[in-house]
Amino acid sequence: MTARVVLGVSGASGAALALDCARVLRAAGAAVELVLSAMAERTLALEIGPGARDELVSLAERLHPVIDLGAAIASGSFPVHGMIVAPCSMRSLAGIANGLDDNLLTRAASVQLKERRPLVLLAREAPLTLAHLRNMTAVTEMGAVVMPPVPAFYLRPETTAQITAQVAARAVDLLRIATPQARAWNPDEGQQP
User: What superkingdom heads the lineage (predicted)?
Assistant: First the structure.
């Protein structure tokens, strides 16, 4: 059976993370249920270019309008393996942490929590306020994984694309839908941590 994964994209900076997550999910054989916030569409265009949204949509099986709270992914009876929010804005994090299911992205995330399915949030902000930290604690206590997109410097990436691809692969690996996609630390390669 093909794994089905919800990919939520908020308007935080880091639009390349969304594209890389979709690419890794497709490479892992997963069907992607995509939901984009209004600001995500703007950030994709600003950070990547005018064709970014279309490329992202082409990697998905289905695009769900963010205002459609009646979409299949808004229900726990719709079978998905889990969800990644990449990038995850502090507004989306707060909505998820406080159960504010006021759009499809936050509702789909809440469904993962209530159904005890994996939810990975690539929280994108710096520095953090106490409110951000408390919201991260709240979602972690509910079962989500907060994964700030921090580079694996020990792999000695040479480009931003290598960094975002590695972060995306780690996020997909946390769903445990396929063999690990991320490059693992290997002390025999002579790298220094």
Answer: Bacteria
**What average pLDDT score do residues 170-193 get?**
84
Tokens representing 62 are 């289905």
- Which residue positions form the known binding site for FMN? 11-13, 37, 89-92, 124
In this predicted model, what pLDDT tens digit does every residue of 5-58 receive, in sequence order? 999 999 999 999 999 999 999 999 999 999 999 999 999 999 999 999 999 999
CB 86 within 8 A of CB 18: yes
Residue written as token pair 């079978």: 79
Q: What global pTM score does this model have?
A: 0.95
Query: Hey, which CATH number is domain 4-179, 3.40.50.300, 3.40.50.1950, 3.40.50.2300, 3.40.50.880?
Result: 3.40.50.1950
Residues placed in the known binding site: 11-13, 37, 89-92, 124, 154, 170
| Binding positions for dimethylallyl phosphate | 154, 170
